[in-house]
Design a protein that fits this description.
This protein is an alpha+beta fold. Helices cover 47% and strands 17% of the residues. The protein has one domain. The protein has helices at 2-11, 26-31, 48-62; strands spanning 17-21, 36-41. β1 (17-21), α2 (26-31) and β2 (36-41) form a beta-alpha-beta unit. The N and C termini lie far apart (34 Å).
């Protein structure tokens, strides 16, 4: 995961990142000050319905109509 985040940061310091994964290293995210908008942890719930709902939740937050 850290390699991917470094690549994203190289491309854009201001990138909005939504992480989808399991066993996420939250300490690493905090320690390196990554600009993470959202984290979808699928360690306990891997259902597509859960994943879809979480993605929609974060996208609504990013693109909410004013």
């Amino acid at each position: 995961m850290n390699g991917y985040l470094r690549d994203i940061r190289t491309y854009s310091e201001l990138a909005t990142i939504i992480i989808i994964g399991q066993n996420i290293d939250y300490e690493e995210l905090f320690k390196n000050h990554y600009r993470v908008f959202g984290v979808i942890d699928i360690t306990e719930n891997k259902s597509l319905t859960f994943l879809r709902n979480q993605i929609h939740f974060y996208l609504d937050g990013l693109y909410k109509k004013q």
